[in-house]
Amino acid sequence: MEFPTANTVEAFRENLAAVRAKIERAAERAGRNASEVRLLPVSKTVPEERIRLAIAAGAHQLGENKVQEAKRKHANLIDEDVKWSIIGHLQTNKAKEVAAFASEFHALDSLRVAEALDRRLEMEGRSLDVYVQVNTSGEESKYGLEPGAVPGMLEALRGFETVNVKGLMTLAIFSDDKEAVRTCFQLLRRLRDEARDRDPALIGPGELSMGMSSDYEIAIEEGANVVRVGQAIFGARPTTDAYYWPSATAKQ
């Protein structure tokens, strides 16, 4: 799939409109209202000067995988009307930075990270919306809780006043097999539904953060409320996905 690079405000407007049109069509196929789906543009690897063009085109909430990159962009674009979502794996020693500037965190995958965030958020006097990340593909290269660990994690998160659970997040298998991708999204939806059946308070609004440039239409058909789209808006990245979603041997 080709993703041409956007270098003007008009190009960003066109790309955003094209993605939103696909969101509307996917929602219609699923008998859903497109207003139930939030588009989160992902600006990882994109330099600040191009991000300014995207903001001017209407992208006012942006997702970043790496905390240091997000922190730098937040500082350099402090004059812009933009909020930052951290969507990648977080080490506990980076919780301080996330607590200081992020508006939401999409990759909560351990109680240790929740504890670190809670301590820092209390010091900052603020709270943070979070999505619990689940490994729905069973790949060792993926971060996220095993599906069976989700109920216990949601129960444990009751004890944190500053961490607001918004729902669940996943990365589908990286595959051209659409049915294999769809199965990942269906599993996340089922886990959300089961959590609601046990205790609706555990899952908050029960949103599903799932779907990227290659598969967000399938994700919407399976119930996504947030789609994290980067290359279809900004253009192809110079780095591979492996750089942002490291292998199991690189996990810390």
TrEMBL record:
Point out residues bearing the modification N6-(pyridoxal phosphate)lysine: K44
Q: Cross-referenced InterPro entries, in alphabetical order?
A: Ala_racemase_N, PLP-binding_barrel, PyrdxlP_homeostasis
Tell whether Nuclease is among the UniProt keywords.
no
Write down the CDD domains for this protein, in alphabetical order. Answer: PLPDE_III_YBL036c_like
Question: What cofactor does its activity depend on?
Answer: pyridoxal 5'-phosphate
| Domain Alanine racemase N-terminal positions | 15-238
* Record's keyword terms, sorted: Pyridoxal phosphate
A Pfam family this chain is assigned to: Ala_racemase_N
Q: Name one GO molecular function term.
A: pyridoxal phosphate binding
Q: What does this protein do?
A: Pyridoxal 5'-phosphate (PLP)-binding protein, which is involved in PLP homeostasis.
Say which family it is in.
Belongs to the pyridoxal phosphate-binding protein YggS/PROSC family.
Name the record gives this protein:
Pyridoxal phosphate homeostasis protein
Q: Which organism is it from?
A: Flaviflexus ciconiae
**What lineage does the source organism belong to?**
Bacteria, Bacillati, Actinomycetota, Actinomycetes, Actinomycetales
